[in-house]
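Entry 14. Structure prediction run on the chain below.
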Amino acid sequence: MNSPVPPREPDPDDGSGSGHSGHSDDGPRRRDRHGRGMRGPVAPPQVPLAVSRSEAFDDLVRDSVTRLERRWPQLTAVEFAVQEVPRSDEGESDEQAEAVPLGRVAESKGGRPDRIVVYRRPVEIRTRNRDERALLVHEVVVEQVAELLGLSPESVDPRYGQD
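Output returned:
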């Protein structure tokens, strides 16, 4: 049988100011359990541990685009984006297709620039580590740029497929 939990009695040392602990009402008192100091972040923001997987993936796409923009300056007018997965509500995913796409090109319309989208989760699933992920991201970006420019991937990046 479940029984209701009785209301908690106020703790005279909880920092709420209701007890006689001798502390003022400057705000909630933080606890320092076991005398080891206050808890803080696991790692400072500049340390790679603080970078999320999606931020690291965005960096890989950005690095690849930067590499290609040196050779193809017209890519500065193209918008690059990262999405988690292809969305079926916008016609990006084909239910009959056997393979999940890793990226797509959306040509300009209605004043919007050309757009290349890389799908994060399908790329991550196909790779085991950061190096493999970086290679696959670059290949996907090169393939999408090649499709947009109407060229072969090897002419967009001569090192395509060699790594």
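The chain is about 30% helix and 10% strand.
Filed with the rest of this week's runs.
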